[in-house]
Sequence to fold (106 residues):
Amino acid sequence: VLGRIGENFGAGFTGGMAFVYDAEERFSQLANPDSINWQRIASSHWERQLHDLVSRHVAETSSRYAAMLLQDWGRTLRHFWQVVPKGYEKYLPVPIAEEPAAAERA
Fold:
């Protein structure tokens, strides 16, 4: 998600994963803590996956906004959240963190 999200984000989220760009630092106020866990990107695997997704978005849509995010990836990455439904981490092919870490909540 590269745009804004609404209140109660993640309610009913039962599978998969989301990456949410949060330049305004509002995600924790809008997320549904009963349904999801979230943290900053903590794995080189998932960082590559995210970078590839944004790159593909640029290639398929010619989005100047997404291209700008890629150009300053070092700064951009710090504003992404990795979101997983509660209990779903065990089904992922690669752990969400290279070192054990609790979900970050502001």
